[in-house]
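--- STAGE predict ---
source: upstream dedup step, 1 unique chain passed
mode: sequence only
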Amino acid sequence: MAFELPPLPYAHDALEPYMGRETLELHHGKHHNTYVVNLNNLVDGAGLAGKGLDEVVVEGFKAGNAGIINNAGQHWNHNLFWRIMKKDAGGPQGELKRRIDQDFGSLEQMKETFKAAATGQFGSGWAWLVVDGDKLDVMKTPNGENPLMHGKKALMGIDVWEHAYYLDYRNRRPDYVQAWLDHLVNWDEVEAGLS
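--- STAGE serialize ---
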């Protein structure tokens, strides 16, 4: 069974002005699609045909297969990225809010920690809110790596590759990260990841 590019759960202009139509068209339709095409071309030769994406991601990482790490990782990363965005979705509630307050002190402190990871990732990569054991934590990964490869559960992740923000923010990664945290995180979807 070949991997497929999932449709976006919203229109290309649904996240404006924080993420523009052209960014979504290129990022989803070109960049993410390329990872899917490349992954499908690599899985047979890596002995991973017929396996689910989570398994391909973990096994490719354990084997040190750079092609699988980057393309399976990026497919997995983007699937989460698209799902956890929604314009002006409010803030965390319920169990997620309780856990953020418990493990970071406040939502604002979690955002500061997350922003530091996202802006501090040198070059291309991701920043993540993860479940690590029984605690929430923030981490960053280079290129296509993700928390699953490191035995952690990702609740949310922001793409800090330049193609994710350059059309809208040019070289102002901190502005992109702040706008994303303040206006584009779908906290209900993030909380759903706790279960």
